[in-house]
Amino acid sequence: MTSQEMKKTLWEAADKLRARMDAAEYKHLVLGLIFLKYVSDAFDERRREVAKLLADPTSELFFSDDPTEQAKALEDRDYYSSANVFWVPQVARWETLRNQAKQPEIGRLLDDALVAMLSPHKGRIYDPCCGSGGMFVQSEKFIEAHGGRADDISIYGQESNPTTWRLVAMNLAIRGIGFNLGKEPVDTFTQDQHGEATGDYADVSGFCRSVKLEEIQEHGYVLTPGRYVGAEAVEDDDEAFAEKMERLTAQLAEQMARGAELDAVIRRKLGALGYGI
């Protein structure tokens, strides 16, 4: 599609929406659809590539002569993530949505699709521009539909529009969903009210440690991790040094041999995909 054709398509989409929503809201719906179409197209292209490889007996990815087994294998996320392609669940694929475009519940289906791709099951859900909270509500429904509990998640959001900020609070409150929308409606870019909620941290000896600038200055601003994280505390197991070294050396040799085997497999797989090393 050319740039001019894209502009024409977007204008026609906005024109159809004109009588149903404020002009300032067009972008939220249209951009969401563009995103869905983009990731779905990339997914479909990769899916076609993988389908050919799975059916080709000369390919390293050859799976089975059975079309049913090949179809099941096509749903393996690893085939897509390994090529940096966004995994798109069946309910969010463009063809699925297009086939239901004239259904009265198409709006809900689209909401179910940004949420299904995110696949929230537990933990924190954070939306820095949450609007009226549609993603939060759909996330709760997604969790319940997959056998989880709504209280497995924590809701954090922020919205700059005062009216919308009140709407999202009411939207969540009437559904009994706990939330934290910040103390006031402000722009996330200029005043992030959830900085402390979007990165828990704890010092772990031998792995990570938070240090003050003064300590870094004492080390001449050298940022080599070993200077700060220390070593993991290990209990003495009373094993004789010579015996331990013999055991660990044998274990290392075994692991190195296994590593060499895996390197060979990886090289063959990459070669089959046209990325020989």
Structural write-up:
With 277 residues, the chain is mainly alpha-helical. The chain has two domains: 1-118, N6 adenine-specific DNA methyltransferase, N-terminal domain (Ferritin, Up-down Bundle); 120-200. The protein has helices spanning 3-17, 26-55, 67-73, 78-81, 94-98, 106-113, 114-118, 134-145, 162-173, 213-218, 226-229, 241-272; strands at residues 123-127, 153-157. Strands 1-2 form a two-stranded parallel ribbon. Helix 8 links the parallel strand 1 (123-127) and strand 2. The longest helix has 32 residues, at 241-272. It is extended, with a radius of gyration of 26 Å. The two termini are 35 Å apart. The mean pLDDT is 77.
Mean pLDDT: 77
Strand content: under 5%
Strand order within the widest beta sheet: 1-2
Helical residue percent band: 40-55%
Which CATH first-tier class of the largest domain would you pick?
Mainly Alpha
- Determine Rg (CA atoms, Å): 26 Å
Furnish the topology, listing elements before pairings.
Layout: H1 3-17, H2 26-55, H3 67-73, H4 78-81, H5 94-98, H6 106-113, H7 114-118, E1 123-127, H8 134-145, E2 153-157, H9 162-173, H10 213-218, H11 226-229, H12 241-272
Parallel strand pairs: 1-2
Q: What tags apply to this protein structure?
A:
277 residues, mainly alpha, Ferritin, two-stranded parallel ribbon, 12 helices, 51% helix
